[in-house]
Amino acid sequence: MIWFNILYFYCCFFALFPVISFQALWVRKKALRLPEPVGAREIPSEVEVESEKQEAEQEAIQEAIQKPIKILLTGDSAAAGVGVETQNDALLGKLQQQLLSEDNTAASICLLAKGGLASQGVLELLQKENPRRFDIAVVSIGVNDVTRFTSLKAWNTNVSLIYQLLVQKFGCKLVIFSGLPPMAEFPAIPQPLRYVLGLRAAMLNNALEKSLITLPFGRLLTVNLLNNNFHTYSHSVKRKPLLNANMMAIDGFHPSSAGYAIWAKQIVTLIRENNTPW
After folding, report:
1. Cα–Cα distance for residue pair 125/80, rounded to 1 Å
2. Is 47 part of any domain?
3. What are residue 255's DSSP bridge partners?
4. What is the pLDDT of residues 147-183, one digit of tens each?
5. Is residue 58 part of a domain?
6. What Cα–Cα distance (Å) separates residue 240 from each residue in 229, 243, 245?
7. 30 pLDDT higher than 80
8. Which one is predicted more confidently, 212 or 21?
C-alpha cells in the first residue's frame, strides 16, 4: 500500500507540476507572514516561583509540595506560536493553563522552536542545546518537510534521531509528536496545490505513525483544528468532525488562540492517558 501511495503521489505531482509550481510561487509571494509572538519562552511553575522566594525558610514545606512537571516544547512555527500576538495565547501558554485548570498540575515549560524549521533543523537545534532534564517533550514538525519535499528516508531518520535525543540527552519519559495538520484543507493554499501537499502530508504522517509504534516512549497526536477533531495513536480516540474555521489564524496556515487551546487540551488528555510517573 505504501508503494502505491508513493506512486500515486508522484503521478499527481508530475502531472500537475506546471500548475502547482506556479501556485507555489504565488503562495510564497502572497502569503501573509506573521511574526512569532512576544513573551517569555520559559514559564516556571507557580511552585518554582514560590520556592525561590521562600527557599531558605520553608525547605520542609517545599519538600511536601508536588514537584512540577517539566515540559520541553520544540519544533517549527506552530510550536513557536505563530498566529497569535503573545505566548500566553500560543501553545506554550495554553498548555500551562490547561494543565492547571484541567488537572491542577503545576508545570514548567521551556520553548525551543523557530519558524521555518523542518525536521533536520529541529534536530540541529536540539543537538546544539545544552543537556537539561525534562519529563515530557512535545514536538511539532512536518509542514516545512512537506513544502521542501523531504524524502521519506530522511524524514524517518530525523524523527528517530529527534526521539533519541529527547530520551537520552533530555531524559524525557514521554515524547509526543504532533502529527501534520490536514494541509489538504488549508484555506490559504489554492487547488490543486492544496491536494498535492495534502497527499504528501498524509504520507509523512503514515511514516511517523509507523516509526512511533517501535519507540516505547513515543506517541502520535493528531489534532484537526479545522474540524475540531482529534485522535491519538497507541491510545486511540476518535470524534466526529465539527467544522470550525475559527481555529485558524488570519494567515490560513497557523492556529488561532482557540486552535492552540484545542491543541493544548488534547496534549493534556494524552499525558493523562499515559499516566506516566514523574
Report:
1. 13
2. yes
3. 248
4. 999 999 999 999 999 999 999 999 999 999 999 988 8
5. no
6. 7, 10, 15
7. no
8. 212
* CA gap 8, 1 in Å, rounded: 10
What pLDDT band is residue 35 in, cutting at 50, 70 and 90?
confident
- Residue 252: what residue type? G
Q: Which residues contact 180 (CB under 8 A, 6 or more apart)?
A: 142, 143, 146, 201, 202, 204, 205, 208
Indicate which CATH number applies to the domain containing 154: 3.40.50.1110
The DSSP result for 53-122, as a single string, is HHTTT-HHHHHHSPPPEEEEEEESHHHHTTTSSBGGGSHHHHHHHHHHHHH---EEEEEEE-TT--HHHH
Backbone torsions φ then ψ of 196, nearest 5 degrees: -65, -45
Pairwise CA distance, residues 41 & 93, whole Å = 9
Q: For residues 198, 229, 240 and 258, what is the CA-based torsion angle, rounded to 10 degrees?
A: -120
The span from the CA of 271 to the CA of 93, in Å, is 17
pTM of model > 0.70: yes
Asked if residue 227 is part of any domain, the answer here is: yes
Determine the distance from the C-alpha atom of residue 55 to the mean position of all C-alpha atoms in its chain, rounded to a whole number: 35
Alpha helices (runs of H) in 2-44, residue ranges in sequence order: 2-15, 17-30
Q: CA–CA separation, 72 vs 92, rounded Å?
A: 10
Residues in contact with 122: Cβ distance below 8 Å, sequence separation at least 6, in sequence order: 74, 75, 76, 113, 139, 141, 158, 162
The one-character DSSP state at 238 is -
Residue 252: domain span: 2-33+42-53+65-274
